[in-house]
Amino acid sequence: MDRTRDQVLRTQWVGRRMRRFEDVKLVTGKGSFVDDLRLPDGVWVEFVRSNHPRGRVKGINTAEAEAVPGVLAVLTAEVLGPLCEAGVNRVLPDLRVLPFAVLAHEEVNAVGQPVAAVVATTQAAAVDAASLVEIDIEPLPLWQDEEPIYRHHWKAGDVDAAFASAAHVARVTIAHERVAPVALEPRTAMAFWDEAEELLTVWMSTQTPHRARQDLAVILNLDESKIRVIAPDVGGAFGGKASIYPEDALVACAAMKLKRPVKWRGSRSEDFLAATQGRGGTIKGELAVDAQGKFLALRARLDYPLGHWMPYSALMPGKNAARILPGPYVCNTIDIALEGRAENTAAMNIYRGAGRPEAAMLMERLADTAARELGIDPAEIRRRNLIAADAFPYALPTGERLDSGDYPRLLQLARSQSHYDDFVRMRAARRKASEVCGIGICVYTEPCGQGWESAEVRLDPNGQIVAATGSSAQGQGRETAYAQIVADALRTRPEAIAVAHGDTATTPTGIGALASRSTAIGGSALLKATEEFREKARRCAARLLQADIEQVELTPEGFEVPVPVRRKLSWYDLGRIAHADAEIVNDFDNGLRTHCVYESEGEAWSSGCCIATVSIDAETGVLTVEKIVWIDDAGVVVNPMLVEGQMMGGLAQGLGEAMLERIVYDEDGQLVTASFMDYAMPRAVHMPELQFGKIETPSPFNDLGAKGVGEAGNVGVPAAIVNAVVDALSPFGVTHMDMPLTSEKIWTAMQADKTE
Ligand code: SMO
Predict the structure, then answer these.
(1) What DSSP designation does 521 have?
(2) By C-alpha distance, which of 39, 36, 472 is closest to 261?
(3) Other C-beta atoms lying within 10 Å of the C-beta of residue 618
(4) What is the pLDDT of residues 609-659, one digit of tens each?
C-alpha cells in the first residue's frame, strides 16, 4: 500500500490544479439534465398530494380529471395494486420500518405525500387535471410520543463516577432545525419501457444510480437485468437524491402501464414538500471536566425525527452524530443514547454532513461552555484536550477507529492565521466602544468513505481508455479527478481518459456518491483497477512487440521497447489488435479489461479547524460573518482546485444553515416553508472573507491516502459561527443560541438583557 501511494505522489497529475473537463459543456449550456431529454410520444406526470398530515383516504374522485383533454390516466393506489406496499429499506431487517408507498394507500401520513398521479400528453394538461382530482381524507390525529422506531446506546467507562468526581459539568441542549438539501436542479425522472425487449430505462437525477436500480427491481418486481438507470448530468444532490422516491417508482410504473415514455419534472415546492430533509435532531450533552478543563466524561442524548417513511440511510444522521463523539478530543468515558421517532412530516435522511455537523456542534458548544464557566480561553481548553498527533490510529470510545490526523496543528495554524490572540486582546476595548463582536472556533473530525466501491478500466477498439466507476457525479468534478488518478497510473495524460459514470449499463455495480467517499473509495478502486489494467496491457504489448514485459515502458501515447531497436505500440493499435486478434483476445481475457471492487481498511477521518469572526449590528441584530479562516486536512489531495470548490460550496451551505435556513411545519402539520419566499437561502452578500489553508495527513487506510472534503464546510462552519455569535452576545448574558441565527432572534436576545 505504501508503495502505491509513493508512486502516486511522485507522478504528475495527482496533486495538480486542473480545470474541470466538465465545465466547458456545463457553462455553455450544453449539459444534459433529465429535463433536457425528450423522447417521441413522451407524456407527463403530475402528482396529486395530500393536504393533510395524517388521515384516512376515504375516496378519490378522478372523473373530472379524466375528462380533461389530453389526460391518459389517473393512477391511484387502487389502480397500482400491491406496488404500493413495497418496502425498499433492506438494510434494517430487525426494525419496524416505516412503509414506503408509491401512492398513499388507505392512509396518508404527511402533507405532500403523493396520493394520485395524472398522466397527460402535455405538462399543462397534467397540471390542470391534477387540480381537479378530489381526495376525500378523514383527518386522524398526528402520531405523538410514539415509541422510538430505533434506539442505540454507546457506553464506555464509569460515567457516574467521572461525573461525581468532576470539578465542573458543562451542559448544553441543541435543537437543530430541519433543513432542505436544496439542489439547483429539483428531482426529475423519466422512464421508457421497451416492450419488445422488456427493458425499462429510467433517467433520474440521482446520486446512487445502481441502488436506484436495485430498489426499482424490488418495487416493480422486475429482474435487475431488465432495468437500466441513467443519471445524466445532475445539478447537485447533497443527500437529497441518495434515495429512491415514490415519484421515481411511479414514473417507471406509468411508463410500463401506458407503454409511453413518461416524464416528471418536480418543482421547487415539491422538493420542499416531499424530498428528504436533513438534521432536525435535538441533542442534550453534559461534559464533566476537571479544574484544568480536562474532559473527563460525556453524556449525550440524541433524539432524531424520522419523518413518515424511511429511506435507505434514514438512520445515518443520528448514528453518525453519535459514533463520532467525542470528536477530536480525548474523553474515554461516555454514555451516548440515540433514539429515532416517526413523525408526520417528509422523510428525514442524510444531508451534506449527515450527523457530522451535529457531533461537531455538540462538542464545540460544550467546549466553549466549559471554557467560559471555568474562565479558560476557548482555544486553550481545546488545546488541552485534543488527541495528540502521535496517537493514531486512535480508538474512539464509541468503537470507531481514527486513521490519522494532526488536530493540535490545525488549531495552531487556524489560531495564528486568524490572529485569534489579537482579536481576544482587542475585544474588550471594542466592546467598550459599543461594538458587538465575537470570535468562535470549531475543531472537527469527520469519517469519510465507508464501505466499498467498484471500478472497471478497459481499452476500447478505437484505442480509447475508459475508466468506469460505480460511483456517480453531481457536479463535483469527478471526471477530472478520476482522470488524473488513472492518467498517473498509466503514465499518460488525463485528457486521454474517458470517465464513465452514472449509467448502470456502462458502469460496474457500485454504491454511488455520498458520505464524502468518491475520491477516497471510488478513486482507490480506480487506482487498483488501473494498475491491474496497466500490467495486463504491458504484457499484451510485450507479446506484440516481441519483448519481455520488463522491457516495456509506458509513454503518454502507449508503449515502447527502447532496445535493441526502438519499437513502439500506441494505445490505438493495441485497442485495435486486442479486440480483433483471436489469440490475443483469448489470452488476455476478452480484450483488455479489468474490474475490481475495492474496500478500504477503514474510514478516512478528515479534520479541520474553522475560526469565524462576526459582528452584529447593535440596532437591528443583523449578523455579519466577517471572516472565516479554515485549515482543512483532506489527506492526499488529487486536485486542489476541486477541493477549494468543495470547501467554498460547503462553507456557503453551512453558513446558510447557521444564519438562515429552517423548515417550518406548523402545529397542524402543514409545511410553511414550501418556496424560496419562505425558506431563506444564503446569498452572495452573506459570504465572508475567506482564508483557506491545509495540512495533509494521508490516510493509511486507503490506497490513495485521500480523505473526504465534500461535506466539511457543513461540518465545521456552523459551529464556528454559532460559537462566535454566542461570544459576541455574551455581554448580554447569552450562553447559547440555536441556528438559524436570524437577526430577529439575535435582536430579541439583546433586548432581553436591557429590560432586566
Ligand atoms: S449527505 Mo451525502 O450526499 O452523504
Answers:
(1) I
(2) 39
(3) 12
(4) 999 999 999 999 999 999 999 999 999 999 999 999 999 999 999 999 999
pLDDT at 3: 44
What's residue 2's pLDDT?
A: 44
Lowest mean pLDDT among 117-126, 143-152, 200-209, 717-726: 143-152
Task: Please provide the DSSP assignment of 286-334 as one string.
Answer: EEEE-TT--EEEEEEEEEEEEESS--TTTTHHHHHHHHHTTTTB---EE
7 pLDDT tier (thresholds 50, 70, 90): very low
For 459-487, the pLDDT digits (tens) are 999 999 999 999 999 989 999 999 999 99
| pLDDT classification of 101: cutoffs 50, 70, 90 | confident
One-letter amino acid at 654 equals G
Give the pLDDT confidence of 168-195 residue by residue, as tens digits: 999 999 999 999 999 999 999 999 999 9
Cβ neighbours, 10 Å, residue 95: 14
Cα–Cα distance, 5 to 520 (Å, whole number): 12
Q: What is the structure's pLDDT at 5?
A: 46
Domains delineated in the chain: 2-31+450-599 (3.30.365.10), 33-354 (3.90.1170.50), 402-447+604-756 (3.30.365.10)
In ligand 1, the atom with minimum distance to the C-alpha of 239 is: 3
Count the Cβ atoms, other than its own, within 10 Å of residue 637.
26
In the chain, count of helices (H) and strands (E)?
21, 30
Going by their DSSP bridges, the two strands 43-49 and 114-120 should be labelled as: antiparallel
| Closest ligand 1 atom to 710 CA | 2
Please indicate whether residue 316, judged by its CB atom, sits closer than 6 Å to ligand 1. no
Residue 242 in contact with ligand 1 by CB distance below 6 A: yes
292 Cα to the center of ligand 1, angstroms: 38
> What is the predicted ipTM?
0.95
State the Cα–Cα distance between residues 444 and 176, nearest whole angstrom.
18
Asked if residue 354 has its Cβ within 6 Å of ligand 1, the reply is yes
How many Å lie between the centroid of ligand 1 and the Cα of residue 288?
A: 32
How far is it, in rounded angstroms, from Cα 605 to Cα 403? 6
Q: pLDDT tier at 426 (50, 70, 90 boundaries)?
A: very high
169 DSSP β-pair partners: 288
> Which cell goes with 455?
471500478
Mean of pLDDT values over 112-126: 98
**187 Cα to the center of ligand 1, angstroms:** 15
Cβ of 712 below 6 Å from ligand 1: no
Tell me the best of 208, 238, 316, 603 to mutate to test the pocket of ligand 1, counting ligand atoms within 8 Å of each CB and taking the most.
238
Please work out whether the CB of residue 514 comes within 6 Å of at least one atom of ligand 1.
yes
Average pLDDT of 576-600? 87
CA end-to-end span of the chain: 64
* Sheet of strand 282-289, all strands in order from the earlier edge strand to the far edge: 150-156, 333-342, 295-307, 282-289, 168-175
Give the mutation target among 179, 187, 243, 351 for probing the ligand 1 site: most ligand atoms within 8 A of CB: 351
Mutate to test the pocket of ligand 1, among 243, 319, 514 (most ligand atoms within 8 A of CB): 514
pLDDT tens, residue by residue, 298-348: 999 999 999 999 888 999 999 999 999 999 999 999 999 999 999 999 999
- Report which ligand 1 atom has the smallest distance to the Cα of 513: 3
Query: Between the CA atoms of 150, 155, 161 and 164, what dihedral angle is there, to the nearest 10 degrees?
Result: -40
Task: Give the ligand 1 atom nearest the CA of 352.
Answer: 1
Residue 15 CB–ligand 1 contact under 6 Å = no
Mean pLDDT over residues 231-259, rounded? Answer: 96
Residue where the block lists cell 450544453: 30
Closest by CA position to 424, among listed 386, 376, 387, 459: 376
Beta bridge partners of residue 289, listed in sequence order: 168, 295
